Amino acid sequence: MFVIDVSHLEFFFENEDAKLFEDLDFTLNIGEIVGMVGPNGSGKSTLIKLLAGELSPNAGQIKVRSYGYLPQDASLGDLDRTVGGILLERFGVEPWRGDLALEIGGLSAIDKKDRLSDLSGGQRTRLGLGLILAGEVLPECLILDEPTNNLDKEGLGWLKKVLEGFRGGVIIASHERRFLDDVVQRIVAIEGKKLANYGGGYSFYRDEFSLKQKVKQEQYEATIKEKKKLETYLKRNQDFNQQVSNESYDKLKHEDRRPFGYHKWDSEVSFGKKIRATYSKIEQLGEAERPDSAPVLDVRLEAEIPSSKIVLRVDNLNKSFQLKNVLKDLSLEVRGAERVLVSGKNGSGKSTLLNIIAGKLNADSGEVIQGENLSFGYFSQDVYGIDQTKTPLEELNLLERDKARCYMLCIKAGLSKESADKKISELSRGQQAKLGFIKLMLMQPDVLLLDEPTNHLDVQTKEAIEKALEDFRGAILVASHDQYFVDNLGITKTIAL
User: Fold this and answer.
1) Which of 348, 370, 350 is nearest to 359 (CA)?
2) What share of the chain is helix, strand, coil (3-state, %, to 5)?
3) How do residues 33-78 score in pLDDT, each as one tens digit?
4) Which of 404, 437, 403, 407 has its CA nearest to residue 419?
5) Strand ranges for 254-364 from DSSP E
6) What does the pLDDT look like over 285-312, one tens digit per residue?
């Protein structure tokens, strides 16, 4: 029995000629866990919002049974509200449901007086899903937009357990490769303006999609080759081709020339048929369409630091929030081109440490000393070091005055010229993250401070960034829950918080 049924969906924002989806069909059955993937900007969050009723289709039909919806940011509203206030607002006279929500989210140990702003992104995700599942009526399906982005290893294990215990249907947009392999039964991928269905997890999808693209590319190349061959044949016989095209052939065909040139005419008739057949074959081949491929971000980071050079020294660092110690007497040293992983559970202080090192946040006590004559580039998991009120073009113009190159960089990030002139706040989170990496590339820092750098990014971009960091000869401090990404980074030191 279906819990979501979509038929002939059509959607566009302003211009009907720029349809995001057209004749899209999708069905989610009870008991299924389905992963949704697609390039950044392809419309995953838009489709999720359509399923959740936050947007309305321009055509087609969407049927959804009772559902719980967890948006991408899981902000839960005003971040100044307390956890206890949210539980009271949601469950009122049934306070035990609030405790159940915290238990489901694995958050029983947190203080209800804590504000949402005190919680990590992963903790807010846990709370959001806990609120959904602790309600009086359990939804028949869950609609989840990138819930894995802010979850650490333990959090991903928690989410896997929750979803496997859920008896309804689940549609989950995510680019967490290992998680999708472990949890989903099938993948739906946004390809063009529709959804393509792949049985199995992410690895199966990746292999099948690569094979499909290879076949399409081979068909495209074979079509181009055949058309060139036929067009060359016509060009070589241009004189007779002209005779056929001006209909002299039809005129001559009815003249009785057999007594004088029977064999010659017979040859001309045969040749004319070949010309007409060649035109027919070209027409049947039609216009060869190159297989769709998402723009791949071209990131090149160049730096070289001597192995003995002090890059960073942190001495006895302390930081508290609301009397809660986040960092206590922390010391570390980084030399040369070390690759340092900052690890810990959600809320352990990873982002706090990187913010302090980047100079975005003041410590309560202790000292941070950056190496002499070294530039630091900071990539934040929330704002990516970009101004949300500017357009991508304005933001890049701060570092690169050549507007043509800025447009080119935007296109490589999967943005159209029109999108490059929109406010950054109107772009998808993945597109914003790509802009953050473009800024790092324009800055060419010696030291990279990366806070969950693969959040919101499609797999092709993740792989491009992995390759860029593999070739990078500067120092890296990174906080990431993406184990696949971390394994490929070549970590030399781990700081456990």
Assistant:
1) 370
2) 40, 25, 35
3) 999 998 877 889 899 999 999 999 999 999 999 999 999 876 677 7
4) 407
5) 310-321, 324-335, 339-343
6) 666 666 666 666 777 888 889 988 999 9
